[in-house]
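Hello forum,

I keep getting stuck at the same step: I have a sequence, I want structure tokens, and every attempt I make locally crashes halfway through. Rather than fight my setup again tonight, could one of you with a working pipeline run this one for me? It's a single chain of 109 residues.
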Amino acid sequence: MQKAEANGILVKIVTKLVEGEYLWLFTNDNSKNITETELKAAIKAYPGTPTLPPKGAFNDFDFYEISDEEASVDFDLWINDIKSDLTLSFTIQKTLNGYGYQIDNIHVL
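Reply #2:
Ran it on my machine without issues. Output:
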């Protein structure tokens, strides 16, 4: 799996987090290990409001290739238009229909 393939999924997840679409994120998550309520609580526990980063910031993420069909990503979320230490961690898996994701954690890193 290439880092470029992860970028589109990253943009989608972050956009949905900023929009507060926690149910959408949970519904589309491959594992459903983190509930809609837990996603919302993780975001709300951090002071400030999540905002979309500048487009170029979406290229600044940690990418760990697990296999040809799976990778792990860490991305620092933006709060009040500033890069924060609140980190989104998720796994991308190749599926029959393209790529899916599994949110692993939202935590201070």
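The chain has one domain: 3-108. If your local run keeps crashing, start a new thread with the error log.
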